[in-house]
Amino acid sequence: MAITDPYLVRSDGIVDRCREIDRRIAALEAEKSALLGERVQLLLDEVPPGHDGYESAERSMFAEIAAGLHISRAAAARALTTGWSLNDRFPVTRAALAAGEISLRHAVVIVAGAAAIDVADHDAAARYEQMVVPYAAAETAPRTEAFARSAAASVAPETAVERHRRARSDRQVRVADADDGMSWLEILMPSPLAHAAYDRMTSIGRRIRLTRAAQDCGAFAGPRAPQPGQELTDEDMRRLTAFESIVEDVQEPLTDPRSLDEIRADIAADLLLTADTELLTEGGVDGIRATVQVTIAASTLSGADDRLAELDGHGPIDAELARDLAATAGVWDRLFLDPRGMLMRTDTYAPTERMRRLLRARDRHCRFPGCRMPARSCDLDHNHDHARGGPTDICNLCCLCEGHHALKHPDLDDRWRWTAAQGPGGVIAWTSPAGRVHTDRPAPRVQFV
Questions:
Q1: Is the pLDDT of residue 239 over 70?
Q2: Which DSSP string corresponds to 286-321?
Q3: Distance between CA atoms of 409 and 417, rounded to whole angstroms?
Q4: 3-state DSSP call for residue 386?
Q5: 58 CB contacts (<8 Å, ≥6 apart)?
Q6: What is the Rg, in whole angstroms, of the alpha carbon atoms belonging to the chain?
Q7: Phi, psi for residue 333 in degrees, rounded to 5
Q8: Partners of 400 in the beta sheet?
Q9: Sheet containing 294-295, strands listed edge to edge, beginning at the edge strand earlier in sequence
Q10: Bridge partners of 379?
Q11: Of 26, 157, 368, 430, whose Cβ has the fewest other Cβ atoms within 10 Å?
């Protein structure tokens, strides 16, 4: 049915026009990158690396581009590197950029993601492009970034393993003073540990906010209130979750008015300074465990090989670290993948919590196009609304973050409401209020060799 609402017709026309402008911009960016690549080649032909005068000539080139384009020296160096790499190593990426199939940001991500591939290994670079360019054409640059790291590691596994092991020796803690009596405390650490630490601080922070909000509103009263040191029950958590919106919507100040970011910072400081936390006396903190999703081959888990594992949604990690994480994991899911790396089934497929685990393993993040909210932080949504007869089945469920879940609420006006339908293989077709269809496919897992 044709859309006749002037508001929706104009909105759809604006999107079309913007997409056309983006294609034209991409073509111009491709032309500009080709020229910058030519400038690098001009230098290499004039003064080969390692010869007298090369460093001075390179420095002059950076200064020339920075001054001429009114950008920083670092930005000039990145632009020149990208341009030369597109000209010399990644012709498929260059062609996709010129055709407007990807943006310059995608191209930059693809070039940067190939760091594990030897510059002289053109065969590996070609196989890398075959994997990553079609993915980039259908996805956002941030999603492409994570996939590109894994794709590069799959075509150059030995180099990637060595880089990961060498990088672990760079872990460190730094402090940098900021303004107004504040400082940044930075920790460089393996990605799974960093994301797990952030997940745990977020979980504790949410528990604090929900508990305080519920107490302020009388959700916990009398003998039903959790006692200090007492683990919260499922019923306690159900009542807490029911009060989650109060944290954002209440007009009067809560007992604890801190934002989630503020609470996370306080938790990090308290844990580091005391190795414990007194920020939540209602209990349950000890029971909060960090959660990350790591995919590792059974042969690697057993120690038969050292293939890279993958931190879902972020990229490859070395096998030794993945085995260490698996040794302390409370829950394992065995995944069965097809040759494309798509999830076919798990041996924990069943209703309730096991169904949730399968969906988190399949989706990995919110299934609205471009969203990267981790699946463990998402709601499980009935694509065909349960209230309208949609079944509670894997083929009708997916992970959606709170914001994108709200887009398809049945009470919304049709001019603002989106719909989602799931096809074979977990493919989600989103239809905008204007009738435009946007497709989101489950991200394949790169299979390391």
A1: no
A2: TT------EE--HHHHTTS----EEETTTEEE-HHH
A3: 7
A4: helix
A5: 43
A6: 25
A7: -125, 125
A8: 379
A9: 294-295, 309-311, 315-317
A10: 400
A11: 157
**pLDDT tens digit string along 103-126?**
999 999 999 999 889 888 999 999
**pTM, whole model, 2 decimals?**
0.74
How many whole angstroms separate alpha carbon 380 and alpha carbon 376?
A: 10
Please give the structure tokens belonging to residue 361. Answer: 């393993």
Which residue, among 387, 378, 384, 375, has the nearest Cα to 420 in the 3D structure?
384
Place of tokens 């009388």: 218
DSSP state of 227: P
CB 431 within 8 A of CB 418: yes
Supply the angle between the helices 104-113 and 73-88 in degrees, to the nearest 10: 80
Residue with tokens 């969906």: 359
Asked if 301 contacts 294 with a C-beta cutoff of 8 angstroms, the reply is no
Q: What is the rounded end-to-end Cα distance, in angstroms, of the chain?
A: 49
What is the per-residue pLDDT across 296-349, written as a single tens digit (0 to 9) for each? Answer: 788 888 788 888 888 877 778 888 878 877 777 766 666 666 666 666 556 554
The type of residue at 161 is V
| Helix, strand, coil % over all residues of the chain, rounded to 5 | 55, 10, 35
pLDDT tops 50 at residue 284:
no
Six-digit token pair at 374?
């981790």
247, pLDDT greater than 80:
no
Residue 136, C-beta contacts closer than 8 angstroms, at least 6 positions apart:
96, 102, 106, 109, 110, 144, 148
Residue type, 72: S
Among candidates 346, 294, 305, 290, which has minimal Cα distance to 150? 294
Contact 192, 317 (CB under 8 A): yes
Do the beta carbons of residue 283 and residue 226 sit within 8 Å? yes
121 phi and psi, to 5 degrees? -90, 80
Q: Cβ(358)–Cβ(349) under 8 Å?
A: yes
